[in-house]
Amino acid sequence: MSTFGEISEPNSRTTWEDWDDEIPDSNGNILQWHKPLLIPEKVDALFVLEGKYLSDCIRLQHNNYIELINTVLEANLLLFEIKSSNRYVCTIKDYKLLQSSEIVELLKPIIIKSKDVITIQTKPLTEYQTDHVTSQPLVLKKLNTAASSKPHQTWNLNFPKLEQPNIMCGVNAGVICLRDHFDLPASALVYYIEHSEEYQTDEIQKLLEHLKIVQNCNSHPNSILNSNLYI
């Protein structure tokens, strides 16, 4: 049974928006793994990385360090195993937001079995809401589950808490909610950056290396920001 229920609209609602119309999937595809998802008995950590820049960092890692073990191509979801460890990395980008709960359900077995879960995503700095004027090119915020405050958490992630009215949505929000529902530790890290997510950011690279998700992240995505091409 699905952990995430359906949204029921009140009968008294009179306004009908464009997105209320049910648009059937022309392909009729149901999201599923390319092959059966085999999860070992022991999973030390699961890292869920959302966004093009983070996905490129993982994709460019050497095969001797990290191995692609499964995919959900319809959602641009890739699942990797860090070799010689019990740690896994999931990357996702350019997916339909309405498919978030379905994607989380696919990840549910490994989400629940993991000893710890950390999600990381990048968002435009313009989306960060605060009463204080900031000139920083990057703002990093963190959101924990209740269980993450317990002493057994091993990650040294001393970052400020994500404050209201800032919110999380999508797959990473679903992952954190699921862990909190089962009273399991998890941390969500949100990078608000000035440029697009394809822009090379040293702080993000340092974090990925600190968590031993990557050996190095010298990715240079093909974008105008990283070229001398002018139109």
UniProtKB/TrEMBL annotation:
Q: Which keywords annotate this record?
A: Chaperone
- Chaperone among the record's keywords? yes
What processes does the entry annotate via GO biological process terms?
proteasome core complex assembly
Gene Ontology molecular functions? proteasome binding
Keyword Translocase on this protein? Answer: no
Entry-linked InterPro entries? Proteasome_assmbl_chp_1
Q: Name one GO cellular component term.
A: endoplasmic reticulum
Q: Which family does it belong to?
A: Belongs to the PSMG1 family.
Q: What is this protein called?
A: Proteasome assembly chaperone 1
Specify the species: Danaus plexippus plexippus
Taxonomic lineage from the root = Eukaryota, Metazoa, Ecdysozoa, Arthropoda, Hexapoda
